[in-house]
Amino acid sequence: MDGAIAAGEAQNGADWKVGVDIGGTFIDFCALEANSGRIASLKVLTTPDDPGAELMTGLTLLAEREGFDPSRTTRFVHGTTVGINTIIQRKGAPLALFTNAGFEDVIELARLRMPDMYSLFCSRPDPLISRDMVFGIPVRMRADGSESQAPDMTAVESAVAAAKANGARGIIVSFLHAWRNGAQEASVKAEIARLAPELFVFTSSEVWPVIREYERSSTAILNGYVHPRVSGYLTALEERLSSRGVPARPMLTKSNGGLMNAAEGKRACVNMLLSGTASGVIGASWLARQAGQDKVLTLDIGGTSADFALIIGGEPQFGTGELIGEFPLHVPSVSVSSIGVGGGSIASVDAQGVLRVGPESAGSSPGPACYGRGGERATVTDAMVVCGWLGHTEMAYGQLRIDTKLAQRAVGELAVQLGRTVEQAAQAVLDIAVSEMFVEVEKLASRAGVDLRDFTLMPFGGGGPMLGAFLARELGMKRVMAPRRPGVVSALGGLVADLRGDFIRTIFSPLSAASLPAIRDAFEALALEGRDWLAAQGHDAAAELNVSCDMRYVGQSYEIEVVLLPQWLADGDAAAIAQAFHLTHQQLYDFHDPDGAIELVNVRLSAIGAGPALSFPEIDELDTPASPARQLPVYTGLCVERVNLYDRQTLVPGNRFHGPAVVVQEDTTFVIPAGSKACVDRHLNLLLTFTE
């Protein structure tokens, strides 16, 4: 490890901070001994049949190899895919929905949009709650928050009995205009608790009190759908950590890139659905700032998917409406685009003789054929092995040995179907994987309105460095930066993340001097809520409060988020708020209407408690050529060439070399194509530039 002391030399007074991230194939560990600045990292294969068992295995290996002392853990941060996998696999809790009588079709109607408007065969996903489990309750709240009709508790009692009879484990209560006043939802929740205490209940106003009934309802449904599995997993996590003598209260990475404690995670499950992908972007942002890179495209490739995100000005981009499987998530989250192409993605030939890659994945069990764990179908990883880019050292910190013959056998079956040599078939698999990622990245760049030629690609995850340089070359990008430990960037993100809570109030008011007192009151209420939330997380230091508003021109259907200065609210400066909206609209759409009337829909506040101040040592660069360990035969697309292999552990700042080349390390393999120059910077990042 970087600056590592020998295993077993645990120091008295050690202060261990541990970040853990579970993916589809591996669980990643990044442990910092804060007193010495030593970083220890590790990857362990996941155990799908017993989620959480791999965590204990990893902690044991850290103790054996790195001298990790569980009893001296002062920070433990965990990211998990339990929630999102529950939705994708549709293995969540059977739920019932209580809504207003006459509005029982709210989740089926949704927004009447098709996932792919240009496909004749496209269909919308089946709702997570079937129509026979939706119950209309005679009740009505007016838009101004006054009650028009009190809940009919007799109807509630009948609905509870029917829901129980149909096997419901939980109930979601979502009524019209609950964003304005959640009293009706709260009273029905209390009645359900009296009638059926064995059922869990969530109301839309407590999960995310935002205007628009579909968005509010669907968010509450996602929260309830994953609640039993997430809650059970987190309870088991706390018990396992306690049994290992870990005193630190576990913290969880959130979709918004921040942290929360496990107790809150059991209730606010929806906030951690994208925790793994968000944590990776947070880790990448921290590394980008350390290296002075202000425009970065991140590429996180695991066993199942490839995730992309933009970092601008050293900060990740945020948004709402990210897809969880087939369903939109309306709480704030780090903006990440995903595609089902990863190292374990299976390649196949369809009935028309067309080669396809993904989205089906071999996962960790059985995994790619070359792992020797029972997999027989060719994957992207197998194609890398056949071409010769991969398989020359042990992988995943010595846990995997690559079997080249098994990879050749699996890819050979594709080659027969395609009428190509095994190397040509393998190259075709890689070309298709890169092309599919290319299409997704181009969509992301178009939506954001950026020119990727101005950006640096940062590949991470186990598979990012394998394919990242090929993708950058196709996109016309000039620079690639591979961190020192790309395989555990998501786990690092948990170590450097801040506490972050997001809060919202719907105002729905024209922007004017007369409306500013209501906006200011909403901000003050949210600020109090945010500080109380930070205190409940155990944060007693200064808090950073960031305020924004969702605004639009009168007549527009959807609003944009505009960052505000609290001083504008305190001073009642409506003109400054309007100007900020016009500028933001201009940036997004290249248009603004300086005379247009403006509506303010939501006030948002992010309460941030700064995480630990960490830094990695910098080492002076010495301009020297790198020494290869040996040469390898590699099929580079047209023929077999002899390329240099370098050991990342021996590379020092200032080392330089040319592609094509292969750089091996414990957590991944960095493939460097022809026409590129590589050097190591003072942070031990590997920088790649393409020549014209």
Automatic annotation (TrEMBL):
Chain ranges of the Acetophenone carboxylase-like C-terminal domain: 518-683
Domain Hydantoinase A/oxoprolinase, first and last residues per copy: 216-500
InterPro entries for this protein: ACX-like_C (IPR049517), Hydant_A_N (IPR008040), Hydantoinase_A (IPR002821), Oxoprolinase-like (IPR045079)
Domain spans labelled Hydantoinase/oxoprolinase N-terminal: 17-192
Entry's Gene Ontology cellular component terms: cytosol
GO biological process: glutathione metabolic process
Origin: domain of life: Bacteria
Pfam family, one: Hydant_A_C
GO MF annotation list: 5-oxoprolinase (ATP-hydrolyzing) activity
Name of the protein this chain belongs to: 5-oxoprolinase
Organism per entry: Mesorhizobium plurifarium
